[in-house]
Structure formats: structure tokens, C-alpha cells
Amino acid sequence: MLRIHLPPNLAAAAARNAIPLKLDFDLSAPPGPELLPVLALLQRWSAAPTPPRFLQLTRAQLRDLADAAGSQPVFFENNQPAVFHHAALLSEPTAPPPPSPPRPPSFGNRHSAIGNSSSAAPMTVDGSEHFLAITLPSREHPTYVRALELVKAHGFILEPSNRRWWLRDRHKTLNFLAENLARLRDEFAARFTPNFEQNTARLAAVEISAEISGDRDAPEVTLALRAGSASDDALRSALATNRGYVETDGQIVLLDPVRVTRFVAAQRALAGDPAAALATRQTHRIPAFRAIDAQQTLEALSPSFQPPEAWRVRTESLRHLSRLEPAPLPPSLRAALRPYQQLGAAWLWHLHRHKLAGILADEMGLGKTLQTLALLAALPHRCHTLYDKPLQLPTEGDQASRHIMYDNPGGAASPSLVVCPASLLENWRRESARFAPQLRVFVHHGANRLAASADFDAHDLVITSYGTLTRDQPLFAAREFACVIADEAQHIKNRRTQNAAALRSLRARSRFVLTGTPVENSLDDLRSLFEFLLPGYVEKVPPNSRADERTWFDDRLRAKTAPYILRRTKQAVAPELPEKLEHILWCELTSAQAALYRETQQRTERELFDLEAAGASESRLRLAALTQLLRLRQICCDPRLLPGSQLAILNSQPGFADSAKLAAFRELLDESTDDHHRLLVFSQFTALLALLREDLTHSEIPFCYLDGTLSPAARQAEVDRFQTSPDVPVFLISLKAGGAGLNLTAADTVVHFDPWWNPAVEAQATDRAHRIGQKRVVTSYKLIASGTVEEKVLALQTEKRALLADVFEASDAAAAKLSLADLKSLLA
Asked: What are the residue ranges of helices labelled H in 536-643?
């Protein structure tokens, strides 16, 4: 149950941009899904797990709250359901209202800003600056118990004859009013007598001001605490001695400790120092990338704070993603994006336009690569209209500005750079060709590498690996990029690695990180990522920090980085997703693996030629071709699958046992388990499953195993163990033995380590997880070695199923029904 009580003076409060609300809620039972957006906003604005009973919002915040509530009857006025027509009332004024003449705060004859919804008598306050006489609310009033605790805690004495609680000491009275006057008005809905109002005419409230001046992109914010005409020394003296008031020029200024605490917190947040001493006036320079953090800090300090236009343009869309301007995408690419992916592309585009950075942290399988390609596709034809400033190179050691660059409006657009693990290079190239064919893409890797900085000009997108970037760091550091993308961010989570150092040396207009797990081990992972993304943005934790100081830095880190992280889960975007997602993960063979593949392929052709020249029968030729085809498929998966004799011969070759698929699988496994996903891993090779068992055992990762050698009882025991043991993340399954007849809904991720000839069989295996009882979206991954027989199998899966069935299922030459020409076409 949730009720939001609107104040009776809503129009006046909206004009002041400070609207008090009273909240009535009962969270003993889980709230319905229709109320979750409302509660999420209230929790975020109050920075507490449970929203407070009273909350003051700006017009914009109340608009967002009303939008989140939709048609739900949560707003009340005078204890009656209110039809909240907020659009006109809460719209921004077209011109600023004329300034009101200064006037002292009115304390007398005042009702609660929310209004008293109870018929019971409220608290009454009488007195002056010298004494107070409080009549508690009636026992039926909901605030009675708290009011009684309040007067007792501050030394009030009950006079039985008139049932008033008295405080007869000027110093204590002023300190009490400084600390509790706002509570009396807002929390207790107290009534102030005309006598009190007349006798407290000299009282005023401490003022907080935020002045903004200087450059529009990096203005200076001056925070000041003012107590009338009192000097700064007098104000500091009062605060240092815990005196809640300052007397100056016939006026008594009350120092509300809540406001003072917020002021100190804002100063420390802007200064980046949890131990910064109170300064009654201090100026802070705010770079562009700190605008949203500074704006949130100042709005928490003063709800009526109005940000500069340059800030508003940068931050408004990040705070309200529905207001993001769509990225200028080619129609074909826009049609390929789901709604949540269009939003992700718009978010990346907004950050790029404003020279910012971010982490796209969508859960695995939601298309981070596709959303990033949408951004890259939007860049080339818009660069001249956006980059209208000359290039300003950073000075020596200027870490805070190293990420900023501008394209030359009169010249060619700068290329973008994607840095990823070597195992994903081919995947990026293929996805680029599929979704953004207009981009001129170059894969800088191995022997195919650019030699000079000028060579970059011929390309829109350069893709390279972390290892190659480190080796060619001087070449890349000398170049200015439109955008730098770091995929699989675990490679830079240790800031001391060469990978992280090489990335930090790059210059670009915008920088982005792609990862499903921005925090794997600790918040230091996030700090390392932002050292690359926005150098100088996140405060460094001093090495000898106390526990409370470390907590302050961690809280600041979460608050500052949140606007620059976009994470959606499959569950959150499930309405926009199909029931089953299928992805191909292209794996480029390692250099040793590729050399072994080529050598085997060439030897196969020679052996077949020699057999034909010697007059061998077609049956023998077919057997030789099938055997060699099997060897090539084994090399694609893992060279260690080769027979013992070949293994012994090749064992002396450095790196021969490297497996691109195994490397890709390990990354997939790490990201999946970090996101609490559970995997089914299918392969037709039991020898490969044995290698995976060894690898998982060595890594101390629990797993289940199933192949054709298990008895029915042992098979069911493994299934039951996986279904009932959440701490087992992986189930290794032989495709033939476990591709049907199993219910494994505890898993939501399926990995096909090697392709099967019939896609229907693969789908049937995937359906071990994707079946009735599954509560999550299931994602299926195919690991395909690019440029090999596996790629040909993938292309022929639907065209020549009968042919492929013979290749994959024939146990000997007699059973195979392929022509020799068909086999040679697969081997070539």
C-alpha cells in the first residue's frame, strides 16, 4: 500500500520548486509490480532502502514520479484520491518569476505543508526566543509517541496544571529551535501560536548559496554558508562550539544542523576529500564529465538549484533515458535493433557527442557488440557537424584531459578503435560486415598490421587485440581516434598491467568499455576502468585510509560512476526479447593452431592425390577423406584431440596445443558465472569433454558430467544433482547421449562447442534448458572456428543436410553415401 499526500499549497510549492510530500506506505507485503518504479524513484531520491515519511521534491522529480505512477491511484489530497493533472502545474516557467522581497521566516500560526489528515488535535507550540511551551498532540494523534520522546530528550519539564512542556533557558531554546524547528513544522504538523510568531520575528534561517561562473564547459561553483551579516569567523566559531545560532545586527540566525551537515557533505563531495574541514565559502572547478555528479550534489543540498544550460543538456538525458536523442543510424541497422538496443545506442551516442565515456554492462547475450556497432556506424557522416572546435592536445601530464579530442572539421574523420581479446577479433570483423557494411574495417593483428599513423586514415574502424596494442603502443598512442572501445574489460581491471597502461595512453573523443561484470573482485575493478574512461574523475583512495574513509570513497565511487554505467538484465528486458537467443561466437585459430590446420589440410590433399595415383579404390579414398575431415574438425576444437601418434610428433612444436575455442570458452564461462548463469556444454567428442573436465578440475569449478557410458541410474543422479545444486555452474554433456530426454531448466545458457550437421539436433539439445518450467531467457552459443571446415558446415546446415549427415554420422566408408567430390569440397 502506498499513498502520496500532496500539500494543500501545491501551486505555491511548485512555483518555489520545492514540493513537500507526505508518504504513507506499508511494505510488510511485497509491493505489486506496478508500484516498483515509484518506489525505486523514492528510494533513489532519499538515498535509503526505505523511503522516509516526508520528502521534498522538485517539479521535475514530481513529474517523473507521476509518470512512473501512471494510472495507479497513489496521489491523495485532503485524504481523498487526487486526479493529478501535473503537466501544466509542474511545467518549467517560460520566464523566471520576479524576485520576492526578502522577509524573515514565519514561524507562527503555521500548519503542516502536507496538511493534517487526522481529526486528532496536533501539537501546539508557544513561546519566544527565551522559552518554549509545547502542548503535545492528543494521544490519538499518530505523532504523539515521537513528540513525547522529543520533549523529554531535550530537557522539557511538564507542568501538570496546564499540561504544557516547558523549556526555560534562552540558550537551550535557541539550540532546540535550530535543531528541530523544521521537524516541528514538517514531521509533527505543529501549530504555532500568534504569540510565538510575534516573539520570534527576529529569528532567521542560515542560508546556503551556490554561485556558478566561468567557462560554460568547466564552470566554477562557489558554495557559501551565510548567517545574515555575521562574519565568517563568527559563523565558524558558533559551529565549532556546537552553538546552534549566531546573533548579528539585531537578528538571530538559526544554524539548522541538518542543513549544515548537508553543506559540509556537499563541500567534501565536490572537493573529493572526506576529511575536508568546513569552509564557509569555497570554490570548486567542475569539468564537463563531473557535471552530473555536481548537479546531483547541489540538488540534494538545495532542491531549487537550477543548473547551467550546458550542464542540463549533458545530464538531463542521462538521468532520464527516455529523453535520449536517437542515434542517426542507417535504416537497415535501426531495423535490426530491438527497442532496448536502440536505447543503448542512443545512450552511447549521447555520451560521445558530449565528449564523455561509459560502460555498457548489459548482461551477456543482450548484444553489446551490436549496440556498439550502431554507435560506430553513426560516427562517420556526422563528424563535421559535431566537432566544431580545433584540436586541443593535452599538456604534459594532464591526465584529466587526455581523453578529449576533436576531429578536424575540414579534413577526414578520425577512425575508431576496438580493442578485444584475440579470440574475438574475427567475431568483431564478421559482425561489422553484417550490421555495418558501410564501415571500412581493418583488423590490425599478426602479420597484417598498419605501419604508420597515416595508414589509419584509410579506415573507419580498426580492430586489434590487447596483446597487439601493447606491442604497437607507440603507433596507437600517436594517433587520435574518434572513439575507443575496450571489449571484455577484465583485461584492464588491474591498472598495473601493460594492457591497462596501453589503453590509458590512447587519445579519443570518447571512450567506452564493454563488460557484463564491471565489478568482479572489488570496487577497485571499477576504479581501474574509470582511470581509462575518465582520467581524474574518480578519487584515489589514500593507502592508509581508515575504514570509515574507505566507505566514504566507495560510496562516492558508486554515486559518481552510476550515470556512466548502463546495465540491463535479460529479466528486465524480457518483454522485448524472444524466448530463446542464439549467437555465433567466431573463434580465430591461434597461429600455431592455424599452421597445424593448414599443414594437415595440405597433407590430406597430397595423400588423396597419391592414393588416386596408386589406383586406390573409391571406398579407400572415401575412408581417407573422412579420416582427414575428422582430424581437421578435431584441430578446430583442440589439437590435443589428435591420435596419440600424431600427438607425439607434434608435441615438440611450440604452442601446438593452443586452442582458440578453449580460450573463448573460458571467457564465456567467467562472464556467465560472474552473472550467476549456469551452463550446459555440448560436444560430440567425449575426448573433448574429458579435456574440459581436466580444465574445470584444475580451476576448482564444480561440474556435472554425462556421456553414453553412464548407467541410467548414474545419468539421473547427475541430472538431479545439477537441478538441485545451485553451486554447480557447468554440466558437460555428450551431444548424442544428452541431446534429448532431459529436463535441465536450472541452466539458462547453452554452449555448443562444435557444430552438428543438423541444426534441429542442436536446437533439441538447447531445449534441455529451454522448456516448460524455465523462468529465464535461454541463450545459446555456437563456437565456430572461422575459415575452417566448421564454417562450411554452418553454411551448409540447411542446404545439404543429407550430405552433412553422412559426413558426421558415418562410422566407416561403407556407410557413407557421399561422392568423393563432395568430400573434397569440404576438405579444400
From this structure: 547-561, 591-613, 618-637
Q: How many residues make up the chain in this entry? A: 828
At 519 the pLDDT is 74
**Other beta carbons within 10 Å of 760:** 11
**CB proximity list for 355: less than 8 A, separation 6 or greater:** 288, 289, 403, 404, 509, 510
Helix (H, G, I), strand (E, B) or coil at 317: helix
Q: Contact at 8 Å (CB) between 515 and 361?
A: yes
| Model pLDDT, residue 172 | 95
Q: How many helices (H) and strands (E) does the chain have?
A: 32, 29
Other CB atoms within 10 Å distance of the CB of residue 330: 16
Q: What's the pLDDT at 611? A: 87
- Dihedral angle computed from the Cα positions of residues 446, 452, 453 and 455, in that order, rounded to the nearest 10 degrees: -80
Nearest C-alpha neighbor of 561 from the set 586, 591, 592, 539? 539
Q: Which residues contact 395 (CB under 8 A, 6 or more apart)?
A: none
Res 574: pLDDT: 53
In order, the DSSP letters of 661-691 are HHHHHHHHHHHHHHTT--EEEEES-HHHHHH
- Separation CA 404–CA 392 (nearest Å): 8
Nearest to 373 by CA among 354, 407, 349, 357: 349
Alpha carbon 308 to its chain centroid, in Å, reads: 26
d(CA 638, CA 626): 18
Measured between alpha carbons, how far is residue 297 from residues 125, 290, 291, 294, 472 in Å? 34, 11, 10, 5, 42
Residue 722: exposure state from Cβ atoms within 10 A (0-12, 13-18, ≥19): buried
Cell 570458452, located at residue: 665
Helix axes 36-46, 59-69, angle to 10 degrees: 160
d(CA 333, CA 327): 11
Query: If residue 341 lies in a helix (H) or strand (E), which one and from where to where?
Result: helix 339-353
CA–CA distance, 249 with 26 (Å, rounded to integer): 49
**pTM confidence score:** 0.62
How far apart (Å, rounded) are the C-alpha atoms in residues 210 and 266?
A: 11
Locus of grid cell 550437421: 757
CA-to-CA distance for 430 and 421, rounded, in angstroms? 15
507-516 pLDDT, tens per residue?
999 999 998 7
State residue 65's pLDDT score. 82
Radius of gyration of the chain (CA): 34
| pLDDT confidence of residue 471 | 94
Low-confidence ranges of the chain (pLDDT < 50): 85, 87-88, 93-118, 382-412, 645, 648-649, 652, 654-656, 803-817
Closest CA to 410 of 389, 384, 379, 378: 384
> What per-residue confidence (pLDDT) applies to 114?
35
Q: Rounded to whole angstroms, what are the CA distances from 802 to 426, 652, 710, 816, 821?
A: 29, 40, 30, 11, 15
